[in-house]
Each structure stands twice: as C-alpha cells, then as structure tokens.
Amino acid sequence: MRALEESTDRLPDSLGSEVVVRAVCDAFGWPPEDAHAVVVGRGAMGRVWKLTAAGRAYAVKEMLWDEGWLDAAGEVRFRDAAVAAGVRAPDAIALGDGEYVLRLPESSGGLRYRAYSWSDGTTVSGTAARAGAADWLGRTLGQLHSLRLQPVAPPDDWYEVIPDLGELEALLTAARHGDPAGSGERIAELAAMVTPADPDARILCHLDVKPANVLEEDTGRSLIDWDDFGAAMPNRELASVLMRWYAEGPDLDVDAAERMLANYSAAGGTVELDASAFAMLCATSINYVHAQASVVVDRSQPREARDFAADELRSAVRLLPDPGVMRKMLSIAARP
C-alpha cells in the first residue's frame, strides 16, 4: 500500500479537493466548472467516487496501493469481448492519449485514478438477493469462460503462492489478532490445498465475481470491477464463485448452487470440479488475511486505513472457507 505520513489519521482528501477534481476533469475531458465528487464505496485497495461534471455522473476509482492496473488496456479488451458476448458492464473511459490510468503529480496527492460510466444500481446484498441472482450468475460466468481468451501473462502470485505460515502467524500476533476459533489450524488446512494451476488450462478470467461487484439495475444486472482480470483455470474460478456466493458458514444454498451450475453449463461452461479446484480460493483467502494484517501493523499508513484493515482482517478470519463445505459443494457439482 502507498506509504503516507505516520502522523496522518485520515486518508487523503483526494477528490474532496477542488484542485484534484479539476485535475481529473481536465485529464478525462470533462467540464471542470462546478464539478464535485463524493465517496460512494471503499474497498481493500481504494475508494470509488461519484464525480458529477456538467450534470453528468461518472464513477472514478482511486487506487491507494502501488500495485494493480498493470494492464488496463488488456482489461478493457477483455471487458469488451465479454460485452460482445452478452455480459453487461460499465464502460471504461479513456484519457485523451488513449490510456486508462491517470497518475496525478505528488503536488496533487500522487494517487492513480480510472473512470467509468455511472450506474445507478445497487450491489447484490443478502442471502435472498444472492439466491435470486443464481441464474444470471451461472449464465454470466459461463459466457466469460466460453470465450476461452488466452492470457499473455502468467497468473499473479496472489492466486497461487502463499506466505510462510510462520511469518503469517507472527504477523497476526503483531496485529493483536491472536488465533480466534483455531484460525491457525484452518489456515494450515487451507495452505495444504494450494497447488499451482495447469499452465495449459489457464484462460482469461474476471477473478473477482463477488456479490459486491454485481449491480442490480432496473434494466438488468451488470458485472463491475474488472481490475483483477488475469490468467486462471476456469474450474478454479467456478469453485471460488460458488463458495463466495452460496456457502455461508457450514451452510450451503443447494438450490441456488444447482441453478447456477445449470445455467453455467447452458452458457458454454464446463463443470469439472475436484478438490484441486479450490486451490485458488484457499490461496486468495490466506493472502487476503496476510495483506490486511500487513496494513494493520504498518505505522506509515493513516489510522483510517489501519482501522479499515483491522475490520477486514476480523471478517476475513471469520469467513475462512471450510474444507467440509467444499466437499459438500463437490457433491452438488457431481449431480447429473
């Protein structure tokens, strides 16, 4: 994460500043007069602002980490191919030079920004809403995977490589998180399931198809936040999506999972799940715990960022996937 002054308690004002709003408007070609922005979302890596210029709203993402957005043009090509196949998604807005990532000078905060068309939808929230989206979810993921687009870069380590467990244990102790409900044992169990993906089976995947990245609008659902796109085995993304949407603690929404899988197959996806399909879910779950604990103990981060990371860490540990539930999911996927 981008280092800030140790004495800072809050994240930078960024688009709360008229100077930054004007700079962003100028870069994207929007009229800066009377333009204003408000924060509408906060994620692990940044914030989303609703910027209104000349009466028109835009979604502007602000990146607080130094990582990410390495191939924005490739992401846009993937998104465009998905839209051509029938997937709904917001438009990515380019800068005047055709690039998609704006980095402001240090005098204006030094952060990076991207812009998208604005949607007035709400994210999928709650068990009933997740179940109601099962048909759409299966169809959309099947459409994405049936494209079979080939990656040009290897997968990010986030999806296949995990930290040393001794280091992670020490980090959790430093974050004053301890070992609630045997999280150390659960992490070790998940770590044993992490294996590299078959290079020949990888395709381009969205890699962040979660309820918070689906907007429900009057005219349908849209898939947002394509930033993490990259190489992965489709069965690993399928397994991750099933668990993130329809596993809650020891419980599974069997009906929703079955409908999701049926629509996935009908849209061209292939259901080939075994225990190894959960390797990516295990890796990302462990890495998310590690990433949030790292922010908690980093005194160069503003207090607001450390507090957010502490909340995320507690949630991430509580929601570590249950291998027993994974086995139940496999039995559902194996049904004819």
TrEMBL record:
Pfam families: APH
Residues that hold ATP according to the record: K61
Source species, domain of life: Bacteria
Molecular-function annotations in GO: ATP binding; transferase activity
Aminoglycoside phosphotransferase domain segment(s): 41-261
Keywords: ATP-binding, Nucleotide-binding, Transferase
Protein name as it appears in the record: Phosphotransferase
